[in-house]
Amino acid sequence: MRRLVFALSCAALSCSNQPTEVKVGEEFVLTLGQSVVVSGTEISITFSAVPQDSRCPVNVVCIWAGNAEVRLTLYGGLPVPEQIAVLNTGLEPRSYDFARLELRLLDLTPQPVYDQPQSELYRARLQIVRK
After folding, report:
1. 63 conformational bin, left if phi > 0, alpha if psi -120 to 50, beta if neither
2. Domain count within the chain
3. For the whole model, what pTM was predicted?
4. Contact by Cβ (8 Å): 58, 113
5. For residue 25, what is the domain's CATH number?
6. Average of per-residue pLDDT values in the chain
7. Sign of CA dihedral 70, 128, 95, 100
8. What distance in Å separates the CA atoms of residue 106 and residue 95, rounded to the nearest whole number?
9. Which residue range forms the structural domain that includes residue 28?
C-alpha cells in the first residue's frame, strides 16, 4: 500500500512540474513557483517570488495604490544566461526585454487584505510580445 501511495505521489509531482507552453502575444497566468515555455523558442519563465507587496489593502482607503515587486527567472538556452526580471505593479519597470521579446506584468492577484497575512497564492498575469 505504501508503495502505491508513493508511486502515485511521484507521478502527480512529476506531472505538476512540467512547464506549460505559451504563445507570443498571448496573456497567461503563473502561480508562484510555476514555469512556462515560450512556444517556438528555448525561453522559459518561472514566477520566482513576490519579495515586496505594499499595495493598498482592499478594505482600506489609501492615498497611494502602492506597489508589488514580482521576480521572474528567465532561461534562454545557450548562449543566453539565466536572468532575473524584477517587475512592478505600480512603479516602473513593468516590462523586461529578453532575447528580442518583451515580458509584461499586467496584474498581480490577490490584493492584500488589511490585518490578514499576505497570500502565498499569488497569480501573475503576464504577456510576452515580440520587440
Report:
1. alpha
2. 1
3. 0.81
4. yes
5. 2.60.98
6. 84
7. positive
8. 9
9. 19-130
H/E/C letters for each residue in the chain? CHHHHHHHHHHHHHHHCCCEEECCCCEEEEECCCEEEECCCCCEEEEEEEEEECCCCCCCCCCCCCCEEEEEEEECCCCCCCEEEEEECCCCCCEEEECCEEEEEEEEECCCCCCCCCCCCCEEEEEEEEC
Place of cell 508562484: 32
For residues 14-40, average pLDDT: 85
Q: Which residues pair with 80 in a beta bridge?
A: none
pLDDT in tens, 60-91: 899 988 999 999 999 987 666 789 999 999 99
